[in-house]
Design a protein that fits this description.
83 residues; mainly alpha; 65% helix; 0% strand
Length: 83
């Protein structure tokens, strides 16, 4: 597999936290950071999609947000306030 090697710098506390998280995950730092970056990119793509949907169809209602929270088994606060 071809890889793109990057060099990154972190504050010491963040670097320690990343190494600890990778160890808990049972992976190396590079793999953990790659998975974290991929998750961040998916979240940004989802936010962009939802912003476009809301621009076209209007904001989500409190009922829609509550249904989404129930479906995802998360706190209603995790899905955000109604616009």
């Amino acid at each position: 597999m071809k890889v793109d090697k990057l060099s990154v710098s972190f504050a010491p506390d963040l670097g320690d936290a990343v190494r600890a998280a990778a160890a808990r995950h049972g992976s190396g730092v590079s793999r953990w950071l790659a998975e974290a970056a991929a998750a961040k990119l998916r979240n940004e793509a989802l936010a962009e999609f939802l912003d476009g949907w809301e621009a076209e169809h209007g904001g989500f209602t409190a009922e829609e947000l509550a249904a989404a929270a129930a479906e995802l088994a998360v706190s209603p606060l995790a899905v955000g306030p109604a616009a």
